[in-house]
Specification:
Elements (H helix, E strand, L loop, with lengths): L15 H9 L6 E5 L3 E3 L3 H6 L7 E5 L2 E3 L5 H10 L2 H4 L12 E3 L6 E5 H7 L10 H12 L3 E4 L5 E3 L6 H20 L1 H4 L2 H22 L1 H22 L7 H24 L10
Parallel strand pairs: 3-7, 4-8
Antiparallel strand pairs: 1-6, 2-8, 3-6, 5-7
Helix pairs in contact: 3-11, 7-11, 9-10, 9-11, 10-11
Length: 277
């Protein structure tokens, strides 16, 4: 059953970026609002966002994608992993409301942009997924010299992929593209937080190897591992005890998965969807 005032445009099996580029040709308003198919906005989403466009230097607006209240236990645990400082570091504001700021890279699951800016850039013009938003944001800030505003009041609710396999598949895809983007878009991808899981994974592997041949090193390696496990446990503590084992395992597996696939992306000669090669 259709919704009054809403027009659905069939696109066929194309990437999210292509779908949004197709919509650009149909849009009649001045502001384009992007949201994922597994997310839904709060009631005043558009109203909250529009005030940011009073500043003519603001080309786009983003806000937090908070875990939906009606998600399952494993989905909510995934949301807790994403919103942990041990996983998202300084980017926690993408998953929980933070302070207002300007950003230079933001997910398109909660993203509004001036139609004139999209037209000037020729749309997303990419098959990257995920990562289409990184390319677009880079062009907004570096090519056009415009601002992207983050507003904690511009909130959507995002259904998470449950722990463990669906969550880790998403992490792997994020990491693969971010590692590749270190070479393609270093301006916003050559950043320490993205490298930390890989450095952690390499230190685990190298430390295990060294501890075999260097007996005095074993105790230091063991203490380092114990310290890491205790730190993860501390960050896994929740008001609801049932979440703790899921979040604890989820954080560790997220670190390992991201670290491995980031290296894979970094070493990849090209990704299949990179049309510029």
């Amino acid at each position: 059953m259709g919704i009054h005032g809403v027009k659905v445009i069939p696109t066929g099996p194309v990437s999210p970026a292509q779908k949004r580029d197709m919509a650009l040709g149909h849009a009649k308003g001045d502001i384009l609002a992007f949201i994922d198919d597994d997310a839904f906005p709060q009631k005043d989403w558009l109203k909250k966002a529009m005030s940011n466009f009073n500043d003519t230097s603001v080309a786009a607006v983003g806000g937090p994608a908070v875990t939906a209240d009606n998600d399952t236990l494993k989905q909510k645990a995934s949301g807790l992993v994403y919103s942990s400082a041990l996983v998202s570091a300084r980017y926690v504001y993408r998953y929980l409301p933070g302070k207002k700021r300007d950003v230079d890279d933001y997910p398109s699951c909660n993203f509004l942009i001036r139609k004139s800016i999209m037209q000037a850039l020729g749309g997303f013009n990419t098959d990257f997924w995920p990562g289409e938003d990184t390319k677009l944001c880079l062009e907004i800030t570096k090519k056009l010299g415009k601002k992207i505003a983050y507003d904690p009041e511009v909130k959507v609710f995002h259904h998470r992929r449950p722990l463990f396999l669906p969550h880790l598949k998403q992490i792997a895809s994020y990491a693969l593209h971010r590692g590749y983007f270190v070479k393609r878009y270093p301006q916003t991808s050559m950043r320490l937080p993205y490298f930390i899981p890989t450095l952690f994974l390499l230190s685990i592997i190298m430390g295990a190897a060294l501890s075999i041949f260097m007996i005095p090193f074993r105790m230091a390696y063991f203490l380092a591992l114990v310290s890491y496990i205790l730190l993860v446990l501390i960050f896994s503590i929740s008001k609801e005890l049932r979440f703790i084992p899921y979040v604890f395992c989820g954080i560790i597996l997220t670190h390992v998965t991201y670290g491995f696939y980031f290296i894979k992306g970094l070493l990849a000669k090209e990704l299949a969807e990179d049309k510029s090669i």
